[in-house]
Every structure is written in structure tokens, then in C-alpha cells.
Amino acid sequence: MAKKQKADLLQGTLDMLILKSLLAQSRHGYGVAKWIQVTTKGALEIEEGSLYPALHRMQKRGWIQSKWGLSESNRRAKYYQLTAVGRAQLKTEVQSWSHLVDAIGLVLKSNLAEG
Fold first, then answer.
1. Can you give the pLDDT at residue 1?
2. How far is the C-alpha of 81 from the C-alpha of 23, rounded, in Å?
3. 3-109 — its CATH code?
4. Which strands sit side by side in the sheet containing 64-70, from one edge to the other?
5. Hey, is 91 helix, strand or coil?
6. Domain positions in the chain
């Protein structure tokens, strides 16, 4: 998949991907990006210029909270975790995404000619 296509795909789904990455455990920013990359087998790579503004926006909305801790390499890092509001938002976004995927599937399976 070309980089432009990756960016277009992520524009509407980045929040959901970040929330999902924090569902099981708290992670620092690099850990969030790495989880998404590994989970998608390298198909999606989140750039810092997209990730950190999204994390800050989500924190302002109350979906995640953060605290300072030590990373695996013993460096100071900000760890993010889901809030109850964030869990509810993830559920809403997953439902919306699933509905969209189903609708697109119907279009792709359609054998109707135009007009």
C-alpha cells in the first residue's frame, strides 16, 4: 500500500486505533505506534506528527489519561491509559467502523449495473 493511501485510511480511524492499542494496557507514544505497526503486520505506520497531536486531543476529551513512568530502556516516558469515557468511545467507534465496512461490502458485492 502506498504511503498516500495509508495516510488517507488513517485520517478517519486514528483515534480508534489508538484507543484499541490502550485497551489491554497503558503504553507510551512509541509503544502505541509500535503496537499498531506490529498488529497490522506493517501495513499501518503512525508518524509522530499524527500520533502526538491525536494523543493530546484525546486526553483533552477525557478519553485517555497519562502519567510519567520509565520505559523499557529506563528512560522517562509519558504512559497513556484508557478512561471509562475512552472505553465507551472505543465501543462507539468500533460500531461505526463495522457499519461502514458492512455498507462498503454490500457495494462491492453488488452486481447491479449503473442507472
1. 44
2. 8
3. 1.10.10.10
4. 27-28, 76-82, 64-70
5. helix
6. 3-109
